[in-house]
Protein: Cytochrome c oxidase assembly protein COX20, mitochondrial
Organism: Hypothenemus hampei
Amino acid sequence: MSDEEDNIPNKSVIIFGRDVSQIPCFRNSFLYGILGGAAFGLAHFMFTSKVAKSANYSVYSFSMITIAYWMRCRYNYSAAKFEAMRIKEVFAERAILEGSLEKDRFSNPNVEVEAVEV
């Protein structure tokens, strides 16, 4: 049974040479856009009974919801990635200064560290 599971090919969609399953926020953006567009188009059709106009509104709302969620998600993703990079740099610097007199600057920046001559 495990041999059959290992031989299953990966079903991924490639657009413009990139695997969309590897793009952060792609899946959620399109899912929210599709659901929002369908709901908005259906609601418009229920109130107006105009098929063509409801289809247009559905496409418009799909586009706007997808773009808006994509921008919000990518901004949050970039902010989190930048913060993780900054924390990693601080930890690396702190590891380098571990055991030296400069390490005391991190714990209390108001205290001046005096150099001790050997």
Remarks:
- DSSP finds four helices and two strands in the chain.
- The mean pLDDT is 83.
- Residues 51-97 form the longest helix (47 residues).
